[in-house]
Amino acid sequence: MITIEKIEQMQARMLAERQKGKTIGFVPTMGYLHEGHVTLLKRAREENDFVVLSIFVNPLQFGPNEDFERYPRDFERDHEIAKRAGVDIIFYPSVREMYPHRPSVTVKVHERVDVLCGKSRPGHFDGVATVVTKLFHIVMPHRAYFGMKDAQQVAVIDGLIRDFHFPIELVAVPTVREDDGLAKSSRNLYLSEQERKEAPALYAALQKGKSLIEAGERDVGKVRQAIVHHIEQHTNGVIDYVEIFSYPELKPLETLQGKIILALAVRFTNARLIDNIVMNVQ
């Protein structure tokens, strides 16, 4: 495994690998890798000849009240995790390398961003789409791997690939969970002992909503209320949102039909947790 920091060097290497006929799997991250990232890397390893991991804390996706400088970074730890996961190249550019001057062109996302987490983070997904566009051109992958824990991000990348005609397959990988169902996240470390006991109720609430739908319920309001009630009964967390939309379009539904997402965000004392279930409704 090698680390490359320069765009020109990275593009040259990727072109060489493609000319050899190798398939390239790509996992873009901001580093501080956890088990969810490892799952993406292992999936990429299984399905491709060559695996690239990018580590880049992207300033364009941080809002004015979000501290870019405080985002956790530990490259030595990430390097060891990547090596064990079978990564071939870590692309590790600096901010100056990725943005040597003020961008004259950025990507503006118009759909799928005015709901869920995007509602309270204006401009965030513009920054995500801009950096992913740059990374796609640099890495030139055949497949790109994203975790469904952030289903809104997956929806945005789906639109980006489709609208810009990237010859890339988007591989959405299921959320990695603890034994009790809680979605794995670095934010779980900020939960108190009592909050950690309560947190699995979030996924249980989503499952309750899913079960209602599978039993024939098609009223959006009734399913949503059942999810809300379960969270309020079993946790002391404050609900940020509980929503049900079409997926990946993220449009409101009058009745439950087709591919949908049940999504939530709940605030505990020092952590805001998100989770979702995507399902098909006949």
TrEMBL record:
Enzyme class, UniProt record, top EC level: ligase
Annotated beta-alanine binding sites: Q61
Pfam families named in the record: Pantoate_ligase
Metabolic or biological pathway, per its Swiss-Prot or TrEMBL entry: Cofactor biosynthesis; (R)-pantothenate biosynthesis; (R)-pantothenate from (R)-pantoate and beta-alanine: step 1/1
GO biological process, one term: pantothenate biosynthetic process
Chain coiled-coil ranges: none
Main subcellular location: cytoplasm
Binding site for (R)-pantoate: Q61, Q153
Subunit note: Homodimer.
Name of the protein in its database record: Pantothenate synthetase
Protein's organism: Anoxybacillus suryakundensis
